[in-house]
Amino acid sequence: MKLIEKLRLRLFNGAFDSTKCDKTTVLVVDGIRKLRKRKEEDIAKMRNKICALLQCGQDPINKTCTARILIEHLIREENILEAYVLIKGFCNLVRGRLSVIQVQRECPENLKQAISSLIFAAKRCFHEIPELLTLEKIFKKKYGSDFVLAVTQTNCVAPVMVEKLSNRNSKDEEIEKIIQQIAKPCNINGEQAAWNCHPTSPYLYDGVAYNAFINYK
């Protein structure tokens, strides 16, 4: 009788492995903790480099300048970092509701955004957080392929997650915000804001080739 009951529950629950889901979310959160420390260090280095370039007179408005390129890269990295904070929160939410997920055939309404957002993130962050792909497979096994495919076609994903993980170009106001954040502590005055730069030789930043620029006045 107990065996029959276990088989019935297994079928009803879509063969959901709550233990595996729990362990995977822990791995995701732990991975984010390590990534966050590294990214915060990289972001600090980028900000210092941008500050030095602005002090040398580089024009961050010119899209071909190293300063501008680094600012756009900085914005992308900060967006990813914010997305990781969201992923961590959604993982913790799922962990706290595993018993509910276990007994309900359909995805609970109050967990749709969290689970959909994790599936959405898996397709975009797997290179740094491969465990997200494992989570995606767990949810696919639980709720079916159609549920996973529908994630990108519905509004279930948290809008801020979509924004932070998008490949769009940086907005002008985002560029301006970073410039102001960096310029003020660097004591860059109005005269230095009259940036004008010209391309010279290749320049390497963290192993990535950019064009280096020198200010001409």
Explain the overall architecture.
The longest helix has 38 residues, at 18-55. 63% of the residues lie in helices and 8% in strands. It has nine helices and two strands. The model is unreliable at 190-217 (pLDDT under 50). α2 (18-55) packs across α6 and α5 packs across α6 (131-143). With 217 residues, it is mainly alpha-helical. Strands 1-2 form a two-stranded antiparallel ribbon. It folds into two domains: 29-96 and 187-217, no CATH class; 106-168. The chain is elongated, with a radius of gyration of 23 Å.
DSSP strand content: 5-15%
The backbone outline, from C-alpha atoms, is elongated
Mean pLDDT comes to: 80
Uncertain residue segments: 190-217
- Strand order in space, largest sheet: 1-2
Structural class: mainly alpha
Number of domains: 2
Question: Sheet bearing the most strands, described?
Answer: 2 strands, antiparallel
What is the string of SSEs from the N terminus onward?
A: HHHHHHHHHEE
Give the number of helices. Answer: 9
Q: Output the radius of gyration.
A: 23 Å
Strand tally: 2
Our measurement of the CA-to-CA distance between the termini, rounded to an integer number of angstroms, reads: 88 Å
Q: Helix content range of the residues, please?
A: 55-70%
